[in-house]
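JOB MANIFEST
job_type = single_chain_structure
chain_count = 1
residues = 88
[input]
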Amino acid sequence: MSPPDIGRFFIRLDLNMAPIYGRRVINEIPKAPCLTAEAARLLRVGEGTARRWADEGKLHVVRTAAGLRVYDRRELERVAAERAATKK
């Protein structure tokens, strides 16, 4: 799924339907969004691991009102590069 297609999953922001970050309501979706499956692929881990890392705070994630986890692709690329550098 490419980033332009992802927009159809987001609910328009208003007071009742704003995405949440952790437990705080925020008003902004990442500029380079991707969902859990793509995040896991970029990090070369399983989807469950990507979800767990997000829940543990190792990855920043935005939760929409619908419950979708939205990751910032730029952060994922940075984390993937760090992981690759430590494996060498």
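[summary]
Confidence is low (pLDDT under 50) at residues 4-18.
The chain is about 40% helix and 15% strand.
exit_status = 0
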